[in-house]
Amino acid sequence: MLDTAKIMYPPLPLIKTWIWMMLESGNPEIEDKGRNNLIASFGSLAEANRYLSEQQQ
Hints:
Blueprint: H1 12-24, H2 28-42, H3 45-55
Helix pairs in contact: 1-2, 2-3
């Protein structure tokens, strides 16, 4: 049986793509889309940052 209490986040390559969109795309619409995707998936940019820090350890 699956543990439904465990939070499922998007795959790491997708998260990195959203970060690239937000930081390096140079297009305000794409930057907003990347930021919005991260917030929708993690609830906040701070939580996304925490998750990425954990994954890189």
